[in-house]
C-alpha cells in the first residue's frame, strides 16, 4: 500500500531520558541549597541518557516498570502537597495489551495518510520553495503519531483545572508594570530582545496606556515525571500558542482510526477526548471582536513572511468567517509598518481597514525583527486601541524569567488567593536564577539533572547535558553579566514508550516521550470577565533522544490523548 515502517535501533547511548532510582528524588522546588547538595550527592551515577532499568512492553507502548518504593519528597513550601498529588493520581498504561501485526500496521498507516490528506492535516513541504507563501502549493501531511498517547485521567483533569487559574494569573501579573520591569531589569542589560520588549512596555507605562479589553490565548505545557508521578509545568506560552487547528485534527484522526480498527487494537475511541481548541480560540477572538464594537473592523493575523504552518492558522480564520462572520487579514510586521497608521482616535488602520483584534502568530523571536521596521510596527500596534493578543504586558508575563520569579516563595500569593496559588505550586518544577551559587555548583556537578533556558520562544534554544556544564563554567570564568539572561530548571524525566511516528509518509518506530499542552482563553473588559476557560489540548510526542520538542522546528510530532 506504499506505507513503510522502519524500525529504528535504540542504543543505550542514544536515549536521552535517564531514570533515577525510586529512592532518588527529582523535585527540588523550594529546597535550601544545602539540602539540594546533600540529595544530589546520594543520586546514582548513571550515565546521562541511559536507563539501567529494563523496559517492558505494556499496551503497545514500551514503558519502564513502576517501582514499588515511594519517591522522596524534597520539601514543597506547604507540607503534604507532594503526598496529596501522589495519592490522587497513579500512572496507568493502556488497559489492554496491543498486538499489532505487520498487516494491521500497514493498514493503519495507509488509512491515516489518506484521512490526513482528505481532512487538511497538512503543512507546507520545506522542499518546495513557495510552500510557505502560497496556499495550496507543496503540501505534505503534518507529522503525527499513529496512535494516541495514554494518560491517567486524574492528570488530565488536573491540567484542565489549572488552565483558568493560569489565565487569571497572567492577567493580574500583566497589570503590575513595576513587577515586570523590576524582574526583568537585569535581563534587559544582557538580552537585546528582552530590552526592546521592555522598552515598548516602558513607553506604554509612561503614557499611561490602559488595555481596557484584554485577550489571552495561552497554552501551558506539562510533562509527567516518571519517578515522582507528578505533573510538572514546562512553560506557559502567552504568545503564538500554535497548533490549535491541526491538534484538533489529530484527535479526530485517532478517533477515526480507533473506530475503524479499535476492535483489533482493543482500544475504545471514546477514550480519546474531544478537542475543541480551534473552535474555542475562534470563539474568544470573535467575542473580543464583538467587544471592540465596530462591525466593519477585522481581525489581523500577524504572521511570518514564510509560514509553512499556515494551515493551522487558516483553520482559525475559516471558523471566524464561517461561524461568526468575522473577516480576517494576514500581514507581516514589515507590511504593518508600511501600510498601517494610527488614526486620531487611536484606531489602527491597515490599508484603510480598521483592526479590532491583533492576533500574533509572529513577533515572539528576535528573528521576527530583522530591522527597525518590524519594531516600529510592534510599537504602533501597542499604541493603538486595537485589542492585542497578546499585549506587550501579556507577552512579558510568558518569559522564562517571570516564570522563575513566580515560582519563588510567596510571590504567587501576591496575585492569587492561597487556594489557587497552592494548586499551581503543585505543578511547578524547580526553577532558579544563576545568582544561586549553590544550585549552579550542583548543576555543574550533575548537569544531566538540569536544563539551562534563555529568554527565547519557539524551540531549539534550551541547553542540556554537558553543554549546561560548559556554559555555566564559561559564564563563571568570564564573570559574565549574561548570567541574567538564563534560568536553571529542574529536568523532568518522563516515561519513554514505544511509538509509531509518521513523517513524510514513512512510519518510524521510536522510543518516545510526550508533552501535554492545555490551551486557555481569557477575555476581560474592564471588571467583567467574559471568558475564562480551558480550551482543548495539544499532545506532542518526540523521539526520546531529542531534547527539544517543537513540531514546527522538526523535533516532535502531533499526538492526542487516550484516557486511562
UniProtKB/TrEMBL annotation:
It is an enzyme of class 6 (ligase). Gene3D superfamilies: 3.30.1490.50, 3.30.1490.80, ATP-grasp fold, B domain (3.30.470.20), Glutathione synthase, substrate-binding domain superfamily, eukaryotic (3.40.50.1760), Glutathione Synthetase, Chain A, domain 3 (1.10.1080.10). Its cofactor is Mg(2+). Binds 1 Mg(2+) ion per subunit. SUPFAM superfamilies: Glutathione synthetase ATP-binding domain-like, PreATP-grasp domain. Keywords: ATP-binding, Chloroplast, Glutathione biosynthesis, Ligase, Magnesium, Metal-binding, Nucleotide-binding, Plastid, Transit peptide. Substrate binds at residues 219, 239-242, 307-309, 313, 361-364, 540, 551-552. Mg(2+) binds at residues 235, 237, 457. Pathway: Sulfur metabolism; glutathione biosynthesis; glutathione from L-cysteine and L-glutamate: step 2/2. Its main location: plastid. One of its GO terms (molecular function) is glutathione synthase activity. It is found in: Plastid, Chloroplast. Residues 297-397 form the Glutathione synthase substrate-binding domain. ATP binds at residues 235, 400, 453-462, 464, 489-492, 515, 542, 548. Its EC number is 6.3.2.3. Signal peptide: none annotated. One of its GO terms (cellular component) is chloroplast. It catalyses: gamma-L-glutamyl-L-cysteine + glycine + ATP = glutathione + ADP + phosphate + H(+). Belongs to the eukaryotic GSH synthase family. Homodimer. This is Glutathione synthetase.
Amino acid at each position: 500500500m506504499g506505507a513503510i515502517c522502519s524500525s529504528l535501533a535504540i542504543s543505550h547511548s542514544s536515549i536521552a531520558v535517564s531514570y533515577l532510582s525510586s529512592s532518588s528524588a527529582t523535585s527540588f522546588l523550594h529546597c535550601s541549597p544545602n539540602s539540594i547538595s546533600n540529595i544530589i550527592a546520594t543520586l546514582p551515577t548513571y550515565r546521562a541518557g541511559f536507563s539501567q532499568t529494563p523496559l517492558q512492553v505494556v499496551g503497545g507502548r514500551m514503558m519502564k516498570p513502576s517501582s514499588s518504593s515511594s519517591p522522596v519528597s524534597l520539601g514543597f513550601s506547604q507540607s503534604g502537597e507532594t503526598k496529596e498529588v501522589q495519592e490522587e493520581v497513579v500512572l496507568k498504561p493502556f488497559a489492554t495489551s496491543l498486538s499489532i501485526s505487520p498487516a494491521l500496521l500497514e493498514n493503519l498507516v495507509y488509512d491515516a495518510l489518506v484521512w490526513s490528506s482528505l481532512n487538511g492535516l497538512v503543512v507546507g513541504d520545506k522542499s518546495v520553495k513557495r510552500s510557505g507563501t502560497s496556499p495550496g502549493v507543496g503540501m505534505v501531511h503534518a507529522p503525527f503519531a499513529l496512535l494516541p498517547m495514554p494518560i491517567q485521567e486524574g492528570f488530565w483533569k488536573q491540567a484542565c483545572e489549572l488552565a483558568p487559574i493560569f489565565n487569571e494569573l497572567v492577567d493580574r501579573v500583566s497589570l503590575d508594570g513595576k513587577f515586570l520591569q523590576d524582574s526583568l531589569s537585569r535581563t534587559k542589560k544582557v538580552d537585546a530582545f528582552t530590552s526592546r520588549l521592555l522598552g515598548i512596555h516602558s513607553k506604554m507605562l509612561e503614557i499611561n496606556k490602559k488595555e481596557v479589553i484584554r485577550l489571552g490565548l495561552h497554552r501551558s505545557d506539562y510533562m509527567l515525571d516518571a519517578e515522582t508521578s507528578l505533573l510538572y509545568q514546562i512553560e506557559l506560552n502567552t504568545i503564538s500558542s500554535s497548533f490549535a487547528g491541526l491538534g484538533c485534527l489529530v484527535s479526530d484522526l485517532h478517533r477515526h482510526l480507533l473506530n475503524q480498527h479499535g476492535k483489533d487494537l482493543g482500544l475504545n475511541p471514546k477514550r480519546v477526548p474531544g478537542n475543541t481548541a480551534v473552535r474555542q480560540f475562534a470563539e474568544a477572538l470573535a467575542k473580543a471582536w464583538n467587544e471592540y464594537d465596530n462591525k466593519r473592523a477585522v481581525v489581523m493575523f500577524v504572521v511570518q513572511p514564510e509560514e509553512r504552518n499556515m494551515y493551522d492558522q487558516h483553520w482559525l480564520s475559516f471558523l471566524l468567517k464561517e461561524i461568526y462572520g468575522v473577516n480576517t487579514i494576514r500581514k507581516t510586521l514589515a507590511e504593518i509598518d508600511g501600510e498601517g497608521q494610527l488614526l486620531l482616535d487611536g484606531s489602527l488602520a491597515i490599508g484603510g481597514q480598521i483592526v479590532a483584534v491583533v492576533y500574533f502568530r509572529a513577533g515572539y523571536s528576535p528573528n521576527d525583527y530583522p530591522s527597525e521596521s518590524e519594531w516600529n510596527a510592534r510599537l504602533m500596534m501597542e499604541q493603538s486601541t486595537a485589542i492585542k493578543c497578546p499585549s506587550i504586558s501579556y507577552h512579558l508575563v510568558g518569559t522564562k524569567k517571570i516564570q522563575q520569579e513566580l515560582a519563588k516563595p510567596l510571590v504567587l500569593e501576591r496575585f492569587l488567593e492561597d487556594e489557587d496559588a497552592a494548586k499551581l505550586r503543585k505543578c511547578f518544577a524547580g526553577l532558579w536564577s544563576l545568582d544561586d551559587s549553590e544550585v549552579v555548583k550542583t548543576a555543574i556537578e550533575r548537569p544531566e539533572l538540569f536544563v539551562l533556558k534563555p529568554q527565547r520562544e519557539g524551540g531549539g534554544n534550551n541547553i542540556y547535558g554537558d553543554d549546561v556544564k560548559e556554559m555555566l563554567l564559561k559564564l563563571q570564568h568570564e564573570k559574565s553579566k549574561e548570567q541574567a539572561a538564563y534560568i536553571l530548571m529542574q529536568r523532568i524525566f518522563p516515561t519513554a514508550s514505544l511509538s509509531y511516528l509518521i513523517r513524510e509518509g514513512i512510519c518510524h518506530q521510536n522510543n518516545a516521550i510526550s508533552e501535554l499542552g492545555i490551551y486557555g482563553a481569557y477575555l476581560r473588559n474592564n471588571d467583567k470577565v467574559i471568558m475564562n476557560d480551558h480550551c482543548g489540548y495539544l499532545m506532542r510526542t518526540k523521539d526520546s533522544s531529542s531534547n527539544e520538542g517543537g513540531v514546527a522546528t522538526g523535533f516532535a510530532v502531533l499526538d492526542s490523548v487516550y484516557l486511562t
